[in-house]
Amino acid sequence: MELVTRILDGSISYSPRGEPRGRSFFGGRISQDDKIDRLEEVGLLAGCSRRQLRAIARISEVIEVPAGTVLARAGAPGDEFFLIMDGSARVEVSARKRSKLEPGQYFGEMSLLDGGPRSASVAAETPLRLLVIKRRDFTTLLKEAPELTQSLLATLSQRVRHAEAALTD
Length: 169
What we know:
Blueprint: H1 2-9, H2 32-39, H3 50-59, E1 61-65, E2 70-72, E3 80-86, E4 89-92, E5 98-101, E6 106-107, H4 109-114, E7 121-124, E8 128-134, H5 135-144, H6 146-168
Antiparallel strand pairs: 1-8, 2-7, 3-6, 3-8, 4-5, 4-7
Helix pairs in contact: 2-3, 5-6
C-alpha cells in the first residue's frame, strides 16, 4: 500500500505503459523468461509448472525504486508481493528484530493470498529492482487457472507440515 501511495503522491512516477520514469539504476529490460527464472526461486511457487509460472510472470511488473523507499509498513494493509531482483532491503519486525533481504528473496506472499496487514516494515537499503505482483491480478489469475490454486495449496500444506514437525522436534 505504501508503494501505491508513493506512486499516487508522485514520489515514484510511472509512464503511461506502467513503467517507472526517471533514472534507471540497473539498465536493461527484464524478459518474460527472466521473470519466470526468478519466480522459480520463490518457495510459495515451488509446486508450479513452467506454464503456471509463465502465467504469473505475465501479471507481474518490474519496477525500480531508489534507496530509502518504504515498500511496506507493519500493520498496513498488504496487497502486493515483492521479489527482489537487484539491490537490498531492510526488514524491521520490531526494534530488536531486523534483517536484510537480497536478490532472490521476497516478501508480501501472505498478503498476496489473504490481503491481511503487513507483519513487518520493509524499506529499500539500496536502489532496488523488484518484480511486483498485485493481489487483484493474482486473484483474477487464480480464478482463471484453478490448477494454480491446487499447486499453491499443496505447497502451503507442505510448509505447514514442516513447521509442525519443527515444533515437535
